[in-house]
Amino acid sequence: MKQYLKQDEWRIIEEGFDPDHHKASESIFSLGNGQMGQRANFEEAWSGPTLQGSYIAGVYYPDKTRVGWWKNGYPEYFAKVLNSPNWIGINVTVDGEMLDLFKAQKVDNFERILDMKNGVLSRRFSVILNNGKRLTVKTDRFLSMERPETGVVKYTMTPNEDCKIIFTPYINGDVENEDANYDEKFWNILETNAVLNKADLLCQTKKLDFRVSYAMETELVGAEASEEQPFSDELHSGNHIPVLASKGKEISLTKYVGVANSMNHEKDELLSVARKKASEAKTLGYDTLLKEQIAHWNEIWEHSDIKIKGDIAAQQGIRFNIFHLNQTYTGEDERLNVGPKGFTGEKYGGSTYWDTEAYCIPFFLMTSPQKVVRNLLIYRYKHLRKAIENAEKLGFTNGAALYPMVTMNGEECHNEWEITFEEIHRNGAIAFAIHNYIRHTGDEKYLEEYGLEVLIGIARFWSQRATFSHDKKKFVILGVTGPNEYENNVNNNWYTNKIAQWCLNYAREASEIVKKNNPGRFSEITKKVNMDPPTEMGVWKSVAGNIHLPYNEEEEVFLQQDGFMDKEQIMADELSPSVRPLNQHWSWDRILRSCFIKQADTLQGMYLFEEEFDTETIRRNFKFYEPRTVHESSLSPCVHNILAARIGDLDKAYEMYLRTSRLDIDDYNREVHEGLHITSMAGTWMSIVEGFGGKRVYKDGKLRLYPIIPEQWKEYSFRIRFRRHDLEVRVDQEQVEIISHAKDEATLTLYDKEISIPAGKSVTIPLNIKYHVKK
Ligand code: BGC
User: Fold this and answer.
1) How many other C-beta atoms can be found within 10 angstroms of the C-beta atom of residue 736?
2) Domains contained in the chain, CATH given
3) What predicted TM-score, i.e. pTM, was given to this entire model?
4) Which of 51-60, 300-309, 654-663 has the lowest mean pLDDT?
5) What keywords are assigned to this protein (predicted)?
6) Which 3 state secondary structure label does DSSP give 510?
7) Binding pocket residue ranges, ligand 1, CB within 6 Å
8) Is 354 annotated as belonging to a binding site?
9) Ligand 1: which atom is nearest the Cα of residue 677?
10) CA of 394 to the centre of ligand 1 (A)
């Protein structure tokens, strides 16, 4: 754990200059706007440790797969998120000396601030260069949420004696990926141009021919430039802007940037689009762009903010997570998704995992307009053909679909057999997300339009993947990896079998719904996918009805997998802290043979299907599995928080909440320099809304709330969208208040009692201590 950031409700603040923190801060202070994003690299030269990162959503590189033993079915490539040309750069020399904080004589009053309310990143510092020149510097930049192809940097300096400053704003195409299997560079620079106060660059990925154009325009205030020199070479373009600076007088250089890519524009128009964006931005000016940015974020916060009173660390933690989720994915483009590291690092290849369906969708469902999640679902619909091809590669037939573990464009990118071929539960999360969307929005039409085809492909997969055991007289699913990646190739992982069963049943149910609502469309779909409904649905029914769900009679718990009780049963708190995290200290062999669980597995299933289980069953399973869980995936604590709250174990729920909410700010896993855990940030939101807030939507499609509050908090509140409702929920140690912001009357169930709230009105009732059940 590393705690060097100041606590504040709305801002992340780094005070004091320590180059050792720089890489971590580059991740934590990252900016994005859905279309592009970047680590908090400095604008001016920096020769210290850094991970340069500037990313364009959806633009990737299929890097050749590198494995020891090639297995049939492996993908040819692993998609890399690409560090792309750097457009923030502004080099500064003062009387011939380069400003580089790593080399400077002294840096004072250093402050780096991420203003999460308004989406602006700033720095303030004073510096003494090696030639003795002293300056104070202010930098501010943002990626416009309102204009996703626009970014702006304002660089302001005040020297404390007369001097000659040369600003060199530039675009740099000479960039590298830290994560490159063969140390290749991934970009060809096609064109660079520069004229007075303007420059641009057009580049192309070496494979797949993604093209991106960058254009900048500059504006100088506070001094006259003389003898400016536009420059461009094979990899760079920019302007040298010399100015004579006077003692104590502030000079600012603003760099307006347009960034366009070939996913959104014709290739031959890219440069002109980027130039137009830069020029529009300059015409509007910094202040107007900032006003738009503030208004845009204000609107986002109005619907997604969570307020916590009495605990600044928790308040900052949750806002940090909400901020990053919203700047990673804005839901405008169904070709995009939420990578585990978003725009903050290269790890995980920037690709889509089951994290999106299992974690991010619940967040976006309740905080964003409906189209946001619809687009995330359509993303998978568009990949259905590839999922069918993926399954065919593994020997499945008849339109069975296996969605990839990791993907950019629908093709599998993961190449470890125990995950690629075995962590098939991901198919279940994709089907469940469709159901989750429909039960929250009531948009059953989605099934006709897109959903049913996906569900049929997935049901076909499960019905073929399950095989009949003559010994057990049950269908079994052999050789899988559950969500707990600390055991591989196990038989009958309870979670996998449970979700397979659910998918088979839901595919039947969805077929009946479409058949009833729109018989014409139903026959169109069944014809398209070549399905004889009675025959196939009969098979699905029989597999689902007769699937083996392992159970341990002695402990009275669902059994994680057939062989789990053969393992030596030790509790995680018996482990010495010196061996944690296990994955950094133990051999893989030792981990696989141990009973330690990486992340929620059986409990993941109990979370998804909670309404099927009574409190005692949930409690028994929780008490059995949580002590064996080492939470070495950031996706783990939130599920445990929700279930702990459900069984009234508030202390445990709070402990789990703390692990998730400040995971990155406090660098719990000592890896924040690689990037942030964007997808698990949605889990923190779930911890408050579903954990403490007790929000549930079960199969009947009704909204339920069972709020409780940790004793460490005075009050917390959140706002959720549900169908036509827009509700604000405030909980303090005495009471629960629900305010309806929608135009219609809201109906919901609060502590098992149905209530209605007229539009614009609120209801207050005492906190129900029944849900504060003691351990
Ligand atoms: C987790 C997976 C997750 C992946 C990306 C892994 O450590 O075990 O469940 O999908 O990280 O977040």
Assistant:
1) 23
2) 7-65+74-302 (2.70.98.40), 305-692 (1.50.10.10), 693-775 (2.60.420.10)
3) 0.97
4) 654-663
5) Hydrolase
6) helix
7) 340, 348, 353-355, 483, 485, 598-599, 633, 635, 679
8) yes
9) 12
10) 22
